[in-house]
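Thanks for the sequence, V.! I ran DNA repair protein RecN right away. Repeating your input here for the record:
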Amino acid sequence: MLISLSIRNFALIEKLSIDFSGGFSVITGETGAGKSILLGALGLVLGKRADLSSLRRKDEKCVVEAHFDVAAYDLQDFFAENDLDYEDVTILRREILPTGKSRAFVNDSPVNLPELQELGHFLIDIHSQHQTQELSDEQIQFRIIDAIAGNQEQVAAFAALLKEHKELRQQLSELTAKLHDANKEQDYNAFLLEELSAIVLRPGLQQELESQQEQLGNVENIKESFARAVSLADNESFGVIQNLKEIKTALQKIAGVSKDYETLTERIGSALIDIDDVVSEISRHAEKLVDDPVQLNLISQQLQAIYNLQKKHQVDSVEALMDIREQLETKVIAADHLETAISDLQQQIGKSAEALDARAELIHKRRSEAIPGLAAQLTAILSQLGMPDARFQMQLTASPNYYANGKDVLQFLFSANKGSDFGLLKKVASGGEMSRIMLAVKAILAKYSKLPAIIFDEIDTGVSGEIANKMGEIMKAMSHDMQVFAITHLPQIAAKGNDHFKVFKSVADEQTQSDLKRLSQDERITEIAEMLSGKDISESAVNHAKALLE
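Predicted structure:
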């Protein structure tokens, strides 16, 4: 429940700090006194957006802080999931700096607004007149029925299953599109792959073939050069080898004279061996040379095929062609893999649909069982509120479609008067009727929800007399299950409160400001008497006020 609220530098509030107790609290005050400012400040600390216009003094920061006792509401998991420190008395604080920057804290840990808003949903329900119109919304109606049916966990589980189901269907859509594209390209890719596979490609192949082509294309010139080289080296009269032998013989005669001469002789010997080996190698190459026009033609064809493929794929190496071949193999194989993956996904989607249908059927069953009791409770409460002939028909129809909370379609039908036809709630209920229906709904939900607190902002608009008295009794009865606040202009409701707070304006230092105070018993009598008769309080109004309070 809300334990305390402190506000500084917000709208017309200079500084305010107030403590609250459990049970039923009423807040009264003249129109324009600042009741909406209180709600605005509380909304701010619960995560609503704000701007510099919220600051009373533009050069100072605005601070709103609320203390909530959450010990009985099992919120530890929420705090753990959001990496927040849990405290039985949790402190929410919101600051708006003069720069316009906003900061939020939960137990002194910084949080973003979505986290603060989500936590706020567990702490307090601020019911405004605008929310009364939300009762016409089908999703709100489903939440009411599901709360009575105890369906919250089932609906949450359904929503999680539906999210997975949609993700699977999205994956299936993407894979199907890929398969469609792959099938369109499949024949062309297979043709390209066949072309590349027709040639045995390996690293360095192009260079080898080009070398062989160069050799076979110049056999005669190569033979002639080899023959000339062997002749110059090995001629018995003037060949290089014969000359080297003679040089070696000449040096051997003086090798013993000096170590240097011996070294020269050895070097000539080594050169002779090398030259002789080179000439032998030339001879061997010459013997291998064959004029083979058939082989030359085959090599030329291979090279031309490689050049054509390189031109087609806009690359300049065999290695690049090998990469392209590998990519094409992957694409061709991928189509088969896609078909397998699609088949697997379809099976998963089928199982997911079965799980969704089973969960939806359970949700539908519980809703169907809860609806008669809800209608009976609503009818009973509305009878107390001056609508004895009010009747409800809640038509629940299972559909083939998946919605966020199941597969049901709901028609929330209402008839206010005996003999009147049923119609959609949003079309046939007046504003005053909607307020009373909403109060009845909230009164019923108080027994089933674990919400710590609720604030009714002038839900009594348009009613008076005995109906107002009954509304006050209903709100007081709700306070046995939760903390209830009512902002009201009606003395019948104000008299029902365990605590009574008054919002008022005052002027200090030429500045108007709003404030809030808890009224004593005597002050309550005066306030309620004034609500009954105006500023000029009569003795009968005072006596009436005392009677209401008693």
